[in-house]
Amino acid sequence: MVSAHEFSVLEALMQRPGSVLSRAQLEDRLYGWGESVESNAVEVYVHGLRRKLGTDVIRTLRGVGYFVPKEQQP
Questions:
Q1: Cα angle 7, 43, 4; round to 5
Q2: How far apart are alpha carbons 34 and 25 in whole angstroms?
């Protein structure tokens, strides 16, 4: 089962496939935090989603953020 926070992360990423969202953007989406907060919550949610949905669903652009790849045309 996907938690409410995991769903919010996935929803944010799925709204703009191929677009990279930073941890700060995802935290703002989840919590409405307008400032930098030392937390690894987003990483925990992404890890949980990868365990449940597969490792290729959410990709990491190292040092930038997370994204869901655009659907490829056959």
A1: 20
A2: 9
